Every structure is written in C-alpha cells, then in structure tokens.
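thought: user wants a sequence for this fold. calling inverse folding tool.
action: design(structure=
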C-alpha cells in the first residue's frame, strides 16, 4: 500500500517535470531562445504602446523580439528600441532597412516590422542601427481630418460669399445689358425708319427720272431739251471765239500803236472799238445766261435750286408758300419776343437766358438734317 502511494507520487512528480520541461521548451522555442541571434537598434519618437517582448518580423516572417526600450533623455530625443533577430535573417537586413511599429490585426498586439534592404546596401552589423518609421496614429489622423474639415468649411464659406457677390454682379450686368438693349432698340428703330424714308425718297426720284419728270428726267428723255442745250453751248463757243478774236485784234492794235510808223489816232479808235465790241459781247453772254434761267426747260431746275426772282413774288404768294415744293418744305418756328428778349438797364433789347434756351430748343429740330443741307434764316418780326 505504502509502495503504491510512493509510486503515484513519483509518477506525479515526473509528469510535472516533464510538463515543465515541455512548457519551457515551447516558450523558449517561441521566443527563439534556442537559436543563434544578433541584436540591432532603431529609434521612434512615438512607440504607440510597444512593450518589451513584442514580436519582431522581418519581411513578414517571425524573426525575434523586443528586448529593451530606452526612455529618451529629453523632449527632442527619441525612444531607443533594442531588437533581437535570428542570425539566419541577417543577409536580408541591410543598413537601409526600415523598422516600423504595426498592429497584429485591427485590435491586436503591437509588433516591429523590418523591411528587407536593397542589394546595394551593406549588411547590418551587430549592435547596428537601422532607421525607424513613425507609426500611424489614428487619433492624430482624426485630428488632422477635423482640421481639414474646418479648413474646407472655411473655403466653402468664402466660395459661397464670392459666388453670391458674383451672382449679384451678374444680375446687375444683366439688368444693365437689358437697359442698354432697350436703348439700342429705340436707336435702331429710328435708324431703320430714317433708312426707309431715304429709300422711299430715292425710289421716288428714280421713278420721276424714268417718267421724264424733273430736270434730270427731261435731260435724259427730252431730245428737244438736249438740242437746246447743244445750241446754247454752241453760242457760248462762238462768244468765246469772238472774245479771242477781239483779244487778238487788241494785241495787234497795241502792237501797231507801239510801232514808230503807226497812226496813233487810228489805232486809238480801233482799240476803243474793240473794247466796245468786247463789252457788248459780255453783255450778250449775261443776257443769254439770264434767258437760260427763264427758259421753259431749265426754269424748273433753277426754281428747285432756289433761284427765284423775289421782285416778281408778291407778299401774298410768299405767305402761301410759293417757295415751297414737294422736295423743299419751309419749317417755321415762332417764339414770342417777350420770351426771347429782355431789356437791359439802358432800355436796349438783348437776348435773355430763357430766350437762348428757347432758341436752342428750336434749333434741336434741325439737328437731324445733314450739315450739307441749305439752311436759310428769313428773319424775325
């Protein structure tokens, strides 16, 4: 009985030792205590909850653990982290390898991830140092996101204010453009109406010429008028020829007069006769020209041009508008003398300011006519 109890106790102790040895082996194997390793260092300004014993991975493969975290000596310094790494992974860890702190899953433990270096960089030595990359801080990201949102909000507000101002400016511009188009529309209508009147006048003149009415129409269609004009031109040529002959005779007479043997009295008589002939010729030319004005064919032309014999027009005919025609209308504007004139201190009449304004208003009626149009002021009473 006693021997059985001893055997049970011994078996229990042996089993416990075996379990302890197995557990120790598993823990040592997990922490790679039974493999050759080397140690390196890296630096972080924020370790983000990294602790001693945290897993170290090289290119995603478990390679060791964090053995020590040294606290910096000042705010400007960084944490110094000591890493234990498997010896067989030394060839892929170079001086340009970068260590970073990452999460094992969304809410898992922190571990150190070491990236593989480049082929051109030298291998890391024992107790060497590789650069560290600062971990991603979710809270800092949220803070920056909030700052960004605030900045975007301010920009949107500024843009909104700018758009409101731009819309107001566009509205004002549209109103101004509408008013301008209305004004331009009125001017265009006036110009169109004036153009239509000019076109109608041109058509009337053209029709009159085609029908043979008026001076130009008669010149084109009336052969008798053309023949009369030719005869007048021939008479004028003969008159000019006579003048030339008279001038030649005068020159000859002067030459004879200047001669030593010429009879002075005879030459003087010839010169007087020549001058008399020239005077008669010029008088005949003036009479021919006056007759041309009174000629039946040309009288209408001169009347249209305003060549009237006022001595032959009575006051009654003048008041009834004998000077007017289809193409010429007399415009009369009356102004009371009490409005136009005033008396000065000496009792003399002078143009008043109101009279000046009245005359300016009256003259505005004639502004629409071309400057080349004849303008006659008959007088005032």
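)
observation: tool returned 381 residues.
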């Amino acid at each position: 009985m006693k021997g059985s109890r001893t055997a049970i106790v011994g078996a229990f102790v042996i089993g416990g030792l075996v379990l302890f040895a197995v557990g120790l082996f598993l823990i040592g194997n997990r922490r790679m205590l039974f493999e050759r390793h080397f140690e390196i260092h890296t630096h972080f300004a924020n370790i983000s909850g990294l602790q001693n014993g945290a897993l170290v991975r090289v290119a995603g493969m478990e390679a060791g653990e964090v053995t020590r975290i040294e606290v910096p000596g000042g705010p400007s310094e960084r944490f110094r982290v000591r890493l234990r790494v498997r010896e067989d992974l030394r060839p892929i860890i170079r001086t340009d390898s970068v260590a970073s702190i990452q999460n094992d899953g969304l809410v898992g433990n922190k571990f150190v991830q070491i990236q593989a270096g480049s082929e051109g960089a030298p291998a890391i030595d024992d107790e060497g140092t590789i650069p560290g990359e600062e971990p991603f801080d979710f809270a800092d990201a949220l803070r920056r996101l909030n700052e960004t949102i605030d900045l975007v909000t301010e920009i949107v507000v500024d843009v909104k204010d700018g758009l409101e101002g731009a819309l107001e400016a566009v509205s004002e511009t549209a109103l101004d453009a509408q008013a301008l188009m209305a004004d331009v529309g009125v001017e265009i209508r006036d110009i169109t109406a004036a153009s239509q009147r000019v076109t109608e006048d041109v058509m009337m003149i053209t029709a009159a010429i085609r029908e043979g009415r008026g001076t130009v129409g008669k010149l084109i269609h009336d052969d008798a008028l053309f023949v009369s004009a030719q005869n007048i031109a021939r008479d004028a040529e003969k008159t000019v020829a006579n003048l030339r002959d008279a001038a030649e005779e005068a020159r000859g007479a002067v030459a004879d007069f200047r001669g030593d043997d010429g009879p002075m009295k005879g030459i003087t008589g010839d010169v007087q006769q020549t001058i008399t002939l020239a005077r008669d010729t010029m008088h005949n030319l003036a009479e021919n020209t006056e007759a041309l004005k009174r000629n039946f064919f040309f009288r209408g032309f001169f009347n249209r041009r305003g060549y009237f014999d006022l001595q032959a027009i009575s006051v009654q005919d003048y008041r009834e508008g004998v000077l007017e025609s289809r193409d010429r209308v007399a415009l009369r504007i009356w102004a009371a003398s009490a409005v136009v004139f005033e008396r000065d201190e000496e009792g003399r009449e002078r143009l008043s300011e109101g009279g000046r304004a009245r005359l300016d208003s009256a003259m505005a009626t004639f502004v629409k006519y071309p400057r080349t149009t004849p303008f006659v002021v008959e007088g005032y009473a």
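thought: summarizing for user.
answer: Here is the designed sequence. The longest strand covers residues 61-70.
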